[in-house]
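Re: that backbone. Tokens:
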């Protein structure tokens, strides 16, 4: 057993926690793992809602209007994640940038009956950011005045930054 003392930020108290060896615990969003020789403390902030840890998800879509199955699925899963309270970002590359253009997703329906527009509308309403690959959008002559609400041009660097801090789904 190892005893660890923490000075809490609020209300500025010294906290005493006896920690069992080879256990992982979470104390005030600090993830702590203790072994006989080492103490690991993950200071990455964690969000909790009703006892459930909230995550950050990145959904990357590269398929365009020709593949309604993948498109509706990525937007459906993003919607489910958002409904559960998770942080959601969508990054559209290659032909997928078409989904962020007003009106182009209106008639995209998968064989299951899923409609891409209904999912996109929900995500827009919930203020999910749609990142568009800048060269992909410009090559297709899409202008920012044509974007759906919440869509913005982004770079490969932003994609990498989002990926390093998120759980990533690619379609």
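Recovered sequence:
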């Amino acid at each position: 057993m190892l005893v660890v003392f923490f000075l809490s930020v609020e209300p500025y108290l010294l906290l005493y926690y006896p920690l069992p060896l080879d256990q992982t615990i979470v104390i005030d969003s600090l993830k702590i793992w203790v072994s006989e020789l080492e103490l690991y403390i993950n200071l990455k902030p964690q969000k909790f809602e009703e006892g459930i840890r909230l995550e950050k998800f990145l959904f990357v879509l590269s398929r365009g209007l020709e593949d309604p199955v993948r498109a509706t699925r990525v937007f459906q899963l993003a919607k489910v994640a958002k409904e559960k309270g998770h942080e959601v970002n969508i990054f559209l590359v290659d032909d997928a940038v078409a989904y962020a253009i007003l009106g182009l997703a209106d008639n995209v329906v998968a064989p299951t009956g899923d409609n891409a527009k209904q999912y996109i509308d929900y995500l827009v309403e919930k203020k999910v950011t749609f990142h568009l690959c800048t060269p992909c959008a410009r090559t297709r002559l899409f202008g920012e005045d044509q974007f759906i609400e919440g869509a913005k041009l982004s770079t490969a660097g932003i994609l990498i930054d989002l990926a390093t801090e998120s759980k990533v789904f690619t379609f």
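Confidence is low (pLDDT under 50) at residues 1-16, 36-45. The two ends are 46 Å apart (CA to CA).
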